[in-house]
Amino acid sequence: MRELTFAIAAASSLAGLLLGSTPLRAQTPTHTPAHAATKTPAKGKKAAAPAIVATREDWGNLSVTGSDLRPEQPTQVQRDDRPKFTRELIRVQWRANDPIDLYVIKPKDVERPPVILYLYSYPSETERFRDNDYCEHLVFGGYAAVGFVSALTGQRYHSRPMKEWFVSELQESLGSSVHDVQMVLNYLTTRGDLDVSHVGMFSEGSGGTIAVLTAASDLRLKAIDLLDPWGDWHTWMAESELVPEAERSRYLKPEFLKKVEAMDPVQWLPSLRAKVRLQQIAEDTVTPKVAKDKFAAAVPKGSEVVNYQTSADLFSATSGGRLFQWLKQQLRPVPAPPNSVVIQTPGPSQ
Fold first, then answer.
1. Which of 84, 149, 212, 341 is the most exposed, having the fewest neighbouring CB atoms within 10 Å of its CB?
2. This prediction's pTM
3. Mean per-residue pLDDT for 293-302?
């Protein structure tokens, strides 16, 4: 458990660095139930339908069309009106006992803005989407931001024995989350106030894995920005510092690796039609160097690969909202890049 706590603390520190504020407190999964809140119908619609009893879901199929997920009526839990943006907390649900807190942040005075989904790595929470300065960075330039957490993460981790966590249940964690992104896109389409023909996804760690797998199965994602994604599963399970030593041998068994074989983002990257940027931090040990090298070799032609030595180098190069500018530019008409991979290696921060 000591190794897991250390790795979670490191991941949370990186999340705080990207937020541009004090790092979030490291979180260990608990049995805390999903947030309780009074539900009010979103967009003035009727009250939610009765709770979902059961669903059939095929985690081995990346496309949500292979599963029987039916959304309940979304409900608006909270709405904030700020000078530069509006922020809605919408609760959506398509599985029993698995409500998802979805933050929809829209710039003021922009009709049907392009959309960027934000999915950070396990074990992140949603606090950043309640930070007003952060939200101003997200909407800068006229873009809507949609944030949530993956399966078995944050408020979605409850009613399970402690031995079942994101990595031990990796097929479920990834399969459910890939389906969630598609269901979120379905919901955003029904709103009518967003330009869902121009959608991108910013992702970090396990969120990067989910972004690649979603882009492989849903062409609605036009561009994805990946920061240290997880993948190359045999190497990752053998060397990642996020995996507790006491559990490592279990995840290296053929039967475990077989279940996630088709969910290796390294295999899907070369065939993606979405625009791709891959950012990697050398000092990050959650994803081993061998896996990082395989990711860099697998990106589609025309992709951008940016290498940093340290998290401080990343912060120096991308603070103040600059981290999100590449993705925003891809959602506007721009000249086609050369048919080659562009590799950048910023120098150490001064």
1. 84
2. 0.84
3. 97
